[in-house]
Amino acid sequence: MNLYRIMIVDDEEEIRLGIIKKIDWEANGFIVVGDAENGQDALEKAEKLQPDVIMTDIKMPFMDGLELGKKLVELMPSTKIIVFSGCDDFEYAHKAIKINVVEYVLKPINSAELIEVLVRLKEQLDREYNEKRNLETLYKHYIKSLPVIREQFLVGAIEGRINEEQWHEQMEELGIDFKYKHLTAGIIQADGTLSFEENLNSFSAQKESALTPISIKKIVDENMGKYCKFISFIYSGMVIVMGNFEKKEDILLFIKGINEVCKVYKRIMGLTISAGIGYVYSNPSQIRFSYRTAQNALDYRFILGAGKAIYIDDVEPDNSIHLQLDEREERSMLNAIKISSENEISEG
């Protein structure tokens, strides 16, 4: 059984000891962790003992029960307060309500009445404890799941399933600090990657194929931060790196960072990796176009050579025509195609 910690505060030692001996605390779900002779003494001890409940007299020297209650609300707001006092202290009782006192007990304290108070209080503490435990469990599960949730969101972005509004709503919640306007996508892949059929025929090849993107991502995460804001994730056996920068020309820093990753990987692993980097966009919903053009750039490694970063604008300058529609235009075009309206297609 979970025992809640309680402290007894009264300026008369005889009363404190009498209350402590009056009932079986553990049988009622509590354990007395300490006592104090005034509010100041109680405050100092409470900070060390961290009681769940403080049971205090109102009238005491140095610091009375009401002043103690005010201090506790500030310093230990979750601590419950039980006030006990004489029957002529009604005005004090009224003031006690304002400092979150959960119970008010009249002197002389009756054992049966005190047990009733403790039963009610334990029920309240149990509810709060269970709620807190459930919230903590959910939060731990969320934190544990966050990398997966983040990856699913980013995959949705490069696949064109995330619009601009969703992007801005989710990025902060997912802990991705992309505050600048310009975005790009890069793809990094090991050179000489085995075909699907070759992987099927070799367990060691399957294992190596699975571990390679992990090792690449680790080097990306260790080296890219000094060049720009970025995030990386694994997708279809490749490492995707999204970059975020204030000025469009800062793409040069992104390229420099990816090139360093390629060099570091070769130095550490003795193997080459290549990267394709897509065009820079300012609309988050267009990150899918950057991803697609990064794929195109990566294919140029067979012509330009492997082991380095290839920027699409260096091989396919952006003065050529690219059909890149925004979400509204794309939906309009698709709807027009579905109803086979040549006029709508030509006007879209």
From TrEMBL:
The keyword Transport does not apply. SUPFAM superfamilies: CheY-like. The modification 4-aspartylphosphate is found at residue 57. Keywords: Coiled coil, Cytoplasm, DNA-binding, Phosphoprotein. This is Stage 0 sporulation protein A homolog. May play the central regulatory role in sporulation. It may be an element of the effector pathway responsible for the activation of sporulation genes in response to nutritional stress. Spo0A may act in concert with spo0H (a sigma factor) to control the expression of some genes that are critical to the sporulation process. InterPro entries: CdaR_GGDEF, CheY-like_superfamily, HptR, Sig_transdc_resp-reg_receiver. GO terms for molecular function: DNA binding. One of its GO terms (biological process) is phosphorelay signal transduction system. Residues 5-122 form the Response regulatory domain. Residues 111-138 form a coiled coil.
